[in-house]
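Task card 7
Instruction: Convert sequence to structure tokens.
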Amino acid sequence: MALNAAQWAGDYAAAGVGAIEMDLRNLGAADLVVRLLLENPVQAPPTDEAVTLSGAQLPAGGAWTRVVFPLSATSLAPTIGDPTQLLSGVTILRIIHSVGADQADPIAGVLGVDNIRALAAPVAVPEPATALLFGVGLLGLGMAHRRKAARAA
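Output:
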């Protein structure tokens, strides 16, 4: 387990963090399943805690692997409290080995971690039919404006 209680703390929802990306390499002799565990304790036990549903399968002695952990209320398994509330007040980010989306499983391992970055939440793109309808509406407004201007002249 790796623990970071300062650099990765904050309001992920307001900051638009939709995922955390990192390069991982299993340097040990045992296979690993790496997940992120997020918590919100502030000098007390956490009221909200969750683990990423997606886990990176890293075979022993494997190569560097780029992994993206989605961070939304639906991509987290709550262990305590509410994931939506948690994403508004993360105080600790842990990198853990966990076969299931739960607390860390004890293991003797060596994990290489590099290039950790927060990624923006994806922007919702309207469906083609919605975009077409919006475009037709704008075209109609433009034509109505031209007719009104022509009558005024």
